[in-house]
Write a structure and sequence with these properties.
209 residues, mainly alpha, globular
Length: 209
């Protein structure tokens, strides 16, 4: 876990909140780079959970890299996030485990988990951090995982950090409750849009291999 010796300007959510303003084009299309940048800006927040979130961080980082590499291979062609999926649907390899479609699906699911986790933090002041994480996992990712992945995740959640210390670190000099509320209410509709698109092409219910 990173130790921050001096308080950061604003909260740990400030960069992602700023980035979310640019995720959609003027026509309302989801843009690849801004969306991936927002996910990337959440990695330092995930980092603060230490060992409890090591698996999530690896998974999120890997999927961001996969999608980013595709985008960088042809930024004009892949400017819109869903264009990566459309290309794979045409090539009939969208459901392959190494596809960008799969990467987007699992990245979105991981972000669902993060949003739910922070919603729990706001709603359930009496819950331990371990319970906050476990309940969020049960509601989001668990149904897509097999027994082994699920057991590993549940075990890792027991390593969640102290709630108060965590909030102090991610709070920095800003209003952490306000920023978490904004994060959940702004990011969730974007994730729902990803699911809606993936469902429209029959690819929102892929399970872990």
């Amino acid at each position: 876990m990173i130790s921050i010796s001096h308080k950061m300007e604003g909260t740990a959510f400030a960069p992602a909140l700023e980035g979310m303003k640019n995720v959609k084009s003027e026509e309302g299309e989801m843009l690849s780079k801004p969306f991936l940048d927002v996910c990337k800006q959440l990695l330092p927040v995930i980092d603060q959970f230490g060992a409890a979130m090591a698996l999530v961080k690896t998974d999120v980082g890997g999927n961001i890299t996969r999608l980013e590499n595709k985008y960088l291979s042809n930024p004009a062609k892949y400017n819109h996030l869903y264009s990566m999926v459309q290309v794979e649907i045409e090539a009939k390899n969208a459901d392959a485990s190494s596809s960008c479609t799969n990467g987007l699906l699992w990245l979105t699911r991981a972000m669902d988990f993060i949003v739910e986790l922070f919603r729990n933090l706001m709603v359930h002041a009496d819950w331990s951090m371990s319970q906050v994480c476990t309940e969020a996992y049960t509601k989001t990712l668990k149904k897509y995982h097999g027994w082994l992945a699920s057991s590993t995740f549940m075990l890792a959640m027991k390593l969640a950090p102290d709630r108060q210390k965590f909030m102090e670190v991610v709070g920095g000099t800003g209003d952490i409750s306000s920023d978490i509320e904004k994060f959940c209410s702004t990011f969730r509709p974007l994730l729902e849009e990803n699911h809606k698109f993936l469902a429209s092409v029959g690819l929102d219910d892929l399970k872990a291999n």
